[in-house]
């Protein structure tokens, strides 16, 4: 059995969401105004991110220092990445966050060479510009780059698709997966849709479940 593993970054690989940390520090009033509208589904996640970060007046070194100090890497992720590589499974990062933060935080954790599908940001002292790759227009959720579309385009035929995530932007990818690991808002959303999923606290939990399934013992 070979896995194609699509893993979210913020709040999944990291203990705390880097986007939330940045907006909380540099644009708290924007957060307070925009988040209730997002929860009521009056605006999309993409619209919320773009609007919030328009108010973030900070440079990349400043936000990266904040992320390094406060985001944290979830226990077991470096070991999980090594396990996937050793066993011949494909592990990719699929994120509504920003490559400018993901790459250095992974490198700090000793994890390099992973394929990353994410947005990006140009941080300046006069506001932040957000960029995401175009989607094919079929997804109505508007989370940036649709993770479900990314998974459909990347997963080799015959592999078992695994998705690991924690938030609203992970729902589409979870619907594509045969095995799902969910925390936080994603777990609650999947419960509403009666989508089976495994809970997890660390990546050692994820690795244990996948290793058992790989050998047919779980």
- The end-to-end distance, rounded to whole angstroms, is 13 Å
Largest sheet: 6 strands, mixed
Structural class comes to alpha/beta
What is the CATH class?
Answer: Alpha Beta
Helix segment count? Answer: 10
CATH topology: Rossmann fold
Give the integer mean of the pLDDT values. Answer: 92
- Percent of sequence in beta strands: 15-25%
- Uncertain runs: none
Principal-axis shape equals: globular
Beta strands, count:
6
Please state the second-level CATH architecture. Answer: 3-Layer(aba) Sandwich
Radius of gyration: 17 Å
Under CATH, the homologous superfamily reads HAD superfamily/HAD-like
What are the secondary-structure elements, in order, as H or E?
Answer: EHHHHHEHEEHEHEHH
Q: What is the topology, as strand order, of the major beta sheet?
A: 4-3-2-1-5-6
Description:
This protein is an alpha/beta fold and 218 residues long. It has one domain (3-215): HAD superfamily/HAD-like (Rossmann fold, 3-Layer(aba) Sandwich), CATH 3.40.50. It has ten helices and six strands, in the order E-H-H-H-H-H-E-H-E-E-H-E-H-E-H-H. It has a six-stranded mixed sheet, sandwiched between helices. Strand 2 (90-98), helix 6 and strand 3 form a beta-alpha-beta unit. Helix 1 packs across helix 2 (28-39) and helix 4 packs across helix 6 (99-108). The two termini are 13 Å apart.
């Amino acid at each position: 059995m070979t896995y194609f593993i699509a893993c979210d970054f913020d709040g999944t690989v990291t203990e705390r969401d880097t986007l939330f940390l940045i907006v909380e520090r540099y644009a708290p009033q924007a957060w307070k105004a925009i988040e209730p509208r997002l929860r009521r589904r009056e605006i999309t996640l993409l619209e919320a991110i773009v609007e919030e970060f328009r108010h973030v007046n900070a440079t990349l070194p400043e936000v990266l220092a904040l992320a390094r100090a406060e985001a944290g890497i979830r226990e077991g992720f470096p070991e999980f990445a090594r396990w996937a590589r050793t066993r011949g499974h494909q592990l990719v990062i699929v994120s509504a966050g920003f490559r400018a933060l993901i790459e250095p935080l992974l490198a700090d954790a000793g994890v390099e060479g992973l394929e990353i599908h994410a947005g990006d940001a140009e941080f300046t002292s006069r506001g932040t510009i957000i960029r995401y790759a175009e989607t094919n227009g079929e997804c109505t959720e508007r989370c940036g780059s649709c993770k479900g579309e990314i998974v459909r385009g990347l997963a080799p035929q015959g592999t078992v698709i695994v998705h690991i995530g924690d938030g609203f932007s992970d729902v589409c990818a979870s619907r594509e997966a045969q095995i799902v690991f969910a925390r936080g808002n994603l777990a609650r959303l999947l419960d509403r849709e009666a989508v089976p999923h495994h809970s997890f606290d660390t990546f050692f939990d994820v690795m244990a479940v996948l290793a058992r399934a790989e050998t047919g013992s779980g």
